[in-house]
Amino acid sequence: MANDHAIQVGEFLFEDAELAQKAVKEQKAINYLRHQLQGRNISAVISAYHQLMQQEIFETELGYAFLSELRREILSDPAVNEEDVERILVKANKEQIGPKMAEDELPDEAAIAQLVERTKTIVKKYKERFYMLLVVVLILLGAVVFMFVITITSDSPTILNYKTKLENEYASWDEDLQKREDEVKHKEEELLKKAGQQQDNASEDK
Fold first, then answer.
1. What are the sequence ranges of the domains in the chain?
2. Cβ–Cβ < 8 Å for 88, 67
């Protein structure tokens, strides 16, 4: 009894959705190849068959069935020896094998040690870069603080004390101008006083 949830692709029913999607793609490739090989001589069919086997394009029963069909078509030619046409290799299902690695695929101690040393070297390099950047940041921070202190304590007008400096300078100018005006008035009074005395002396002499 067929599974109600199975996906039909061609003559096959697939319970696995991912495998069914692969079969759909393979069906499109099969249709294209059949169209291209239609009417071609046996040499073209043999060449296409060997290329498909080398590239391992097909992974589902649908693709393997097409390869079997091509192989039977090739062997139907009396001039072709069966030994010259390689048999179809069905690849193992990775899901059935499971995630466990084979012993020959496990890394040896030397490879692990090399990986550890390489990791240590990379970590050391990044630590050195980190400390260099930290020193640069501290230097820049110190420079900013130094400039801020200079800005606050400087006698030249800045954005922070510009108004105060102008007010102080204006007051100084006003005080100096007032002194000069007082001196001028004082001298004028002395000159007027001397001029009056000279007139009085001249009147007495007459």
1. 7-97, 125-154, 158-206
2. yes
Could you tell me which residues come within 8 angstroms of residue 58 by beta carbon, excluding any fewer than 6 positions away?
26, 29, 52, 64, 66, 67
21: left (phi over 0), alpha (psi -120 to 50) or beta: alpha
Nearest to 2 by CA among 14, 19, 20, 16: 14
The whole model's pTM is what?
Answer: 0.43
- Give me the helix-helix angle, 17-37 and 42-55, nearest 10°: 150
**CA 165 – CA 156 distance, rounded (Å):** 8
Of all residues in the chain, what percent carry a pLDDT higher than 70? 70
For residues 3 and 15, is the Cβ–Cβ distance under 8 A? yes
* Helix (H) / strand (E) containing 13: strand 12-14
